[in-house]
Amino acid sequence: MQQRNIFLTVLLGSLSLGVTTASAHTVLISSNPAKNSVIKALPVNIVLTFADPLLTLGKSAVNRIVVTDSTNTVISTNKYLVKGGVLTDALNTAGTKAGRYLVKYRVSAEDGHVVTGSFSFKVKP
Ligand SMILES: [Cu+2]
Questions:
Q1: Domains assigned to the chain
Q2: How far does residue 105's CA lie from ligand 1's centre (Å)?
Q3: Which of the 8 DSSP states describes residue 53?
């Protein structure tokens, strides 16, 4: 009887753990430029690091980043590179303007769930 209870406890424990994992979508854990940072110059690439490996489906862009400057001009270039949980896109740094930049992303982690978000940073030469 006691053994059966232990079995049930372990079973229920792993079931609830499974549910927790499945319902927890991936999250952005860091980025370069970092959220709310003030930087002197734009980097050549924007790098977003997520907690889980991202989905890749051939050449179709299931993971996207759009970066706009303070005049709403898109400076991201859709040259995506996915390596595990790290998503990179090249930035057009020609004619970089000072001011606030907005980063919007839409990614699919390996659990198939779409995660979207946004943050901003500032360029102050
Ligand atoms: Cu999920």
A1: 25-123 (2.60.40.1220)
A2: 16
A3: P
Q: How far is the CA of 61 from the centre of ligand 1 (A)?
A: 18
- pLDDT over threshold 60, residue 86: yes
- How many whole angstroms from 112 Cα to the centroid of ligand 1? 7
Q: How many CB atoms lie within 10 A of CB 111?
A: 15
Higher pLDDT residue, 117 or 21?
117
Q: Tokens at residue 46, please? A: 């924007």
Query: How many angstroms does the Cα of residue 79 sit away from the middle of ligand 1?
Result: 25
Any alpha helices (H) in the chain, and if so which ranges? 2-23
Distance CA 91, CA 31 (A): 14
How far, in Å, CA of 25 to CA of 16, rounded?
16
DSSP state of 116: E
| Measured distance CA(103)–CA(47) in Å, rounded | 11
Close Cβ partners of 113 (under 8 Å, ≥ 6 residues apart): 25, 26
Does the pLDDT at position 123 exceed 80? yes
| Contact assessment for residue 51 and residue 26, using Cβ atoms and an 8 Å cutoff | yes
